[in-house]
């Protein structure tokens, strides 16, 4: 399954820096979710659900699958991962998060502002000549696809 927003960010970075190494690396670090699987192109798929979610779940505070309060938030977990990577000495910016929220029954989306902010974050991370890494995620409250965009030293 492709991580479409990451593919867009990656294409924009390669266009922006044609003479700079732009690559995708596996997302390192432990993640506090029961479902954590590698996918194609180094996409890391994570989920706090180790059950089959209801088809039309809107991820309310009271999880319908377990009948109890939802004690997790994917955005917080991804931000904490970025902090741990930085604390370990990695040059990680972000995360750039595209957070899908339910707006009407059965329709979830993220705002165009989030797309522009994610692109801006990548541009700022690459504005210096030093190598950079940007953690990018398309997520909901419970599930996510994560990638690590890497920029080599600018020539």
Task: Sum this structure up briefly.
With 155 residues, this protein is α+β, with helices and mostly antiparallel strands. The protein has helices at residues 4-16, 74-87, 112-125; strands at 22-25, 35-38, 44-47, 62-63, 68-69, 92-99, 101-104, 107-109, 132-139, 143-151.
Major sheet description? 6 strands, mixed
Determine the N-to-C terminus distance: 34 Å
How much helix is in the residues? 25-40%
| Poorly predicted spans | none
Care to count the β-strands?
Answer: 10
Continuous helix count: 3
User: What would the principal axes of the Cα set say about the shape?
Assistant: globular
Number of domains: 1
Structural class: alpha+beta
Average pLDDT number: 94
Strand and helix order: HEEEEEHEEEHEE
The percent range for strand residues is 25-35%
* Alpha-carbon Rg, integer: 16 Å
What does this protein structure show overall?
With about 160 residues, this protein is of the alpha+beta class. About 25% of the residues lie in helices and about 30% in strands. The chain has one domain (about 5-150). The protein is built from 3 helices and 10 strands; from the N terminus they run αβββββαβββαββ. Strands 1, 2, 3, 6, 9 and 10 form a 6-stranded mixed sheet that branches. A hairpin with a 4-residue loop joins strand 4 (about 60-65) and strand 5 (about 70). The longest helix has 14 residues, at about 75-85. It is globular, with a radius of gyration of 16 Å. The mean pLDDT is about 95.
């Amino acid at each position: 399954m492709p991580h479409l927003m990451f593919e867009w960010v990656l294409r924009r970075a390669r266009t922006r820096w044609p003479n700079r190494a732009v690559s995708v690396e596996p997302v390192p670090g432990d993640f506090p979710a029961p479902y954590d699987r590698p996918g194609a192109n180094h996409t890391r798929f994570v989920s706090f659900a180790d059950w089959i979610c209801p088809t039309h779940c809107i991820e309310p505070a009271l999880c319908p699958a377990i009948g109890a309060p939802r004690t997790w938030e994917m955005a917080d977990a991804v931000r904490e991962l970025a902090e741990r990577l930085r604390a370990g000495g990695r040059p990680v910016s972000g995360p750039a998060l595209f957070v899908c929220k339910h707006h009407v029954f059965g329709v979830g989306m993220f705002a165009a502002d989030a797309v522009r902010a994610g692109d801006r974050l990548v541009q700022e991370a690459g504005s210096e000549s030093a190598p950079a890494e940007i953690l990018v995620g398309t997520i909901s409250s419970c599930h996510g696809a994560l990638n690590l965009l890497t920029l080599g030293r600018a020539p």
